[in-house]
Amino acid sequence: RSFSTAARQTLKIGLIPADGIGKEVIPAARAAIIALGSDIPKPEFIDLVAGWECFTRTGVALPEDTVQILKDECDCALFGSVSSPSRKVVGYSSPIVALRKKLDLYANIRPVVSVAPEAGQKPSVDLIVVRENTECLYVKEETLTSGANGKEARATRLITEHASRRIGQMAFELANSRPRKHLTIIHKSNVLSITDGLFRETVRAVPSLPGIDGKYDGVTIAEQLVDSAVYRLFREPEIFDVMVAPNLYGDILSDAAAALVGSLGLIPSINAGDNFVMGEPVHGSAPDIEGKGIANPLASIRSAALMLRHLGYTKGADRLDIAVDQVIREAKFLTPDLKGTSTTSEVLEAVLRKL
Amino acid sequence: RSFSTAARQTLKIGLIPADGIGKEVIPAARAAIIALGSDIPKPEFIDLVAGWECFTRTGVALPEDTVQILKDECDCALFGSVSSPSRKVVGYSSPIVALRKKLDLYANIRPVVSVAPEAGQKPSVDLIVVRENTECLYVKEETLTSGANGKEARATRLITEHASRRIGQMAFELANSRPRKHLTIIHKSNVLSITDGLFRETVRAVPSLPGIDGKYDGVTIAEQLVDSAVYRLFREPEIFDVMVAPNLYGDILSDAAAALVGSLGLIPSINAGDNFVMGEPVHGSAPDIEGKGIANPLASIRSAALMLRHLGYTKGADRLDIAVDQVIREAKFLTPDLKGTSTTSEVLEAVLRKL
Ligand SMILES: CC(C)[C@H](C(=O)O)[C@@H](O)C(=O)O
Ligand SMILES: CC(C)[C@H](C(=O)O)[C@@H](O)C(=O)O
């Protein structure tokens, strides 16, 4: 199986709606992909399971089968969202965190762009959060002991040169491809001088790596402490272009950025590795609106676009993005998170009509 | 030395301006305290050093003397802000993080309140971040090793039952004293089930502790994952009253909340323990405006108010807060962070005139 688009006759897409509104928005993304017709290879969908519901039914949150089929048969995948139990449940562990690691999807790329009032105008927010996706506190190495004063819990935060370098390369590559070519490194090295110090220095060193040969000379580099980054994101979002961050900071920053453009229901992401890409809306399983048919499908449709773009299907990706932008700009068919009154399928229909 | 206000003839206040604009705003807070006259015991100020500048001069960021004088002679203190080197410097470690630990100032209390257009009207943002101040990643236990793939850095995140319980108690006490009596526990236990699980469960268990006897029955409890909390803070700040969080989340959340009310230059905090309290503006050393005389002194004056309130000097604290609110509402004398053109001393003079 090759990652190049050249020879593909069909595009095999794993679908893992998982829990909550994931089950409502992933089918919408599926329909939008089908509507692209011959702009992409003929899509074939493979339905896969994972999630909290899967765990309560089968005792396993991420079946081995799901991972194997993704690895062996799929060209790419779309993941919905997972519910999580409110307390520690023995044997349960977040399947999305596990999938990112098992497929070595080391980059979580989250573009946050406000739709301009008119097509062609400059959006007020136009940034990409490039989040390291395999380590930091997400290694989930935790221990619980009993000390003189009661229980003590410890978690390990891992930052490696290897992972920092490859996420740094991805971030420089992205920054270099954008008009502003500006990269902000997010860290907290005033407290975490060794872990965040390593992240910061490794990313900074990317332009001097062998083989880069001045390729990133046009990229300007800035830094922000994570607390200050969240503050400035709200006060002056226009200072950011590409932001690169360790896992947890990236998680928080992308939600913060989502608030700027109106709704988490608009923000797509891809989990990308060297051999696989998985689209995933940034919103969660939204238990409060689950099953009501009013979940916003736009983040998932945009995630499909991002996935297709990553695979090289620019035309299909552009068509999806343009259709979504038009629907948002017209503001006739919007779900309640965007102060509209439409259902998931009405919004999907509106997108399909624009395609 | 006792922590009760009863018998005090004088109030001994340690002043640690430290670096950057700390040196401009702490003197302003000092002047405001002096202006309170007989509403507080006669203040006596003790000038103390710490910080990056102190380190570059003496090789020590937090002199033993500073700690000892705070412990032995001071009733309370005001801390300015510290600059930090952009790279790891051998022997340097943040003096504010060290002070919080050495004086066991386990609670960092950060009220964020928007000034209502008219006195008496309800502010749109009125919340308090109660941040655990001694552990989490701030234990600064970091290691660096060399693996097959290059350097690997690890940090320990420590969450104890003991520290979670006392910060929980502080948060419930605060929530119970406020009209809305609403407490939101911030965590990320969907990923960190053991460490954040312990934090969450320990805080939740506070109302059932022996001796509480139904005292907190009126407090409603909610929870938010930290990423979602930042998102909702921007979208619906009115849902929050008191938020309690582990150290790093609290750091990020308080900066996020500051963005909501216009400027970090307005946000005060106290670092409080059972035996000592230290006021500290939430803003940093702001190297970009250092020495220009335009730093906003209001966060420091409010920090002084918060410190006095914590010590029981309600009348003095109220006078400072009311004066600051009036100056903001009138909007005649404001520093550039609030889109004004006044200097630090003009804003201070405006506050002093209102006292
Ligand atoms: C569900 C959760 C484990 C996940 C994360 O923290 O990565 C989510 O918040 C996200 O941003 O994709
Ligand atoms: C200066 C830094 C160590 C500090 C912190 O992270 O606690 C600051 O950001 C704060 O919020 O007081």
Automatic annotation (TrEMBL), chains A, B:
One of its GO terms (cellular component) is mitochondrion. Residues 12-351 form the Isopropylmalate dehydrogenase-like domain. It holds the Pfam family Iso_dh. GO terms for biological process: isocitrate metabolic process; lysine biosynthetic process; tricarboxylic acid cycle. One of its GO terms (molecular function) is NAD binding. SUPFAM superfamilies: Isocitrate/Isopropylmalate dehydrogenase-like. The keyword Metal-binding does not apply. Keywords: Magnesium. The keyword Magnesium applies. InterPro entries: IsoCit/isopropylmalate_DH_CS, IsoPropMal-DH-like_dom. PANTHER family: DECARBOXYLATING DEHYDROGENASES-ISOCITRATE, ISOPROPYLMALATE, TARTRATE, HOMOISOCITRATE DEHYDROGENASE, MITOCHONDRIAL. Belongs to the isocitrate and isopropylmalate dehydrogenases family. This is Isopropylmalate dehydrogenase-like domain-containing protein.
